[in-house]
Design a protein that fits this description.
Blueprint (H helix, E strand, L loop, with lengths): L2 H24 L9 E5 L4 H12 L3 E8 L10 H13 L3 E5 L1 H17 L6 H21 L4 E3 L4 E6 L2 E6 L16 H5 L1 E2 L7 H10 L22 H5 L7 E6 L5 E6 L21 E6 L4 E5 L5 E12 L9 E6 L7 E8 L3 E11 L6 E5 L6 E7 L1
Parallel strand pairs: 1-2, 1-4, 2-3, 4-7, 8-11
Antiparallel strand pairs: 5-6, 8-9, 10-11, 12-15, 12-17, 13-14, 13-16, 14-15, 16-17
Helix pairs in contact: 1-3, 2-3, 2-7, 4-5
Length: about 375
Amino acid sequence: MSETADKNRAAQFEEVLECSLATAKTSTISPKTKTRVAVCMSGGVDSSATALILQKAGYDIIGITGWLIKSGSRCCDTGMVDAARVCEQLGIEHHAVDLRALFKSSIIDNFHESYAKARTPLPCSVCNTEIKWGALMNYSLKHLDADYIATGHYARVVQTDAGPRLARSADTKKDQSYVLWGLTNEQLSRTLLPLGDFTKDQIRAIAEEGSLVTAKRKDSQDLCFIPEGSTTQEYLKLYLEIRPGPIMHIESGETLGTHQGTHNYTIGQRKGLGVAYSEPLYVCGIDPDMNIVFVGSTKHLLRNELTASEVNWIMPEPPVDPFQALAKIRYNSPVEKAMVYPLPDARVKVVFENAQPAITAGQVLGIYDLTDTFILGGGWID
C-alpha cells in the first residue's frame, strides 16, 4: 500500500473515531424499552452479522470498537471504518474506545516477553479476557447502559439450572470455546453469543442477505499487530536481541548447530533448524537462561502430563477433587481423555491417558466435560 493511501486511511479512521467519541459524549440515551446489547465489532463479517442478528431479534443494539493500535494497522484503520459503516447501515450508534495503552501493555508487551522466556503465547486469548470481556465490557455496562455484550465468536451460552454454561458451537469446525476459557461466570451471565447456533456459511449468507458492507470480507488468520506479510520471527527481530547459541541433541548431548536466538523457535518445530542429521529432528526443549535449543526425534516430543497456572473455572463451583475430563493443548488439537488434579494457587496438573506431542509452554490448556459439550475452564500451560 502506498504512503498516500496509508495517510488517507489514517485520516479516515481519525474522522470516524472523532465522530464516534462525539456521539458517546453527547448522545442522550432514552429510557430503555428493551434489552440493550453492546456488540464488540471488529469490522469483520462475524461481528457485523452478530449485530444484524440481534437487531432482527428485537434487541436495542449499539456497536463498540476498541482502538488498539496506531493508525496503519489492519484492525484499526480498515476494521474501525468498516465497523462504523455497518453501524450506519443498521442505524445504530457506534462507539470507539481508546485502548492503545492497555493493548500495548497487556497484549503486545506480553507477546514479546513470552517469546523471550521461551513461551509461545496465544495473544487472541489474552485479548478476549483483557479487551473484549475486560475494558469493552466494563465500558459498555458503565457508560453505555448496556445489559449485555455480544461478540462474533462461535460458541454458545447455555442456560442451566446451575447457571449459564459455555458450550461448543454447533459448527465444530469453527468452534472458538477454547479461546474463551478465561470468561468468569459473572461475565458469562452478561454475554450473548448468537453465532454459536450457525455455520460460517450461514453467517456469510445472512450478511449478504442484509447487504452488509463486510459480507465478503475475508477472515484474518494473522495477528493484528504484526505487519501484513511479515512472519513472527521477522517481527520479533525488531524487539528482541538475537543471541546465537548451541542446538543440542536432547539425548546424546551432541551440539549439532547454532541457533539464532531461542525466541525464534517453538516446541514441535521441524523446519528452519539448519542442521543435518540421520533422522528428522524437532525442537523438543528450549532453555532461554542457558541459551540452548534442544532437538530430538518424535518420541522426544511426547509427554503424558503438564501443569498449568492462572486457571479459571467456568463452573458453578471450582473443583477440589481430581476428576476425569477431556483436555486439549492447542487450538487445532483434538480433545483427549485425562485426569485433572486441582492444585493450590489457581494451578492444575493434567495426566493424559495417551502421551501428547509437543506440549508447549505459553499455550492454553482447555478442559472439557466428558461429553465434549461444555468447556469447564482452562489455564496457561507451564
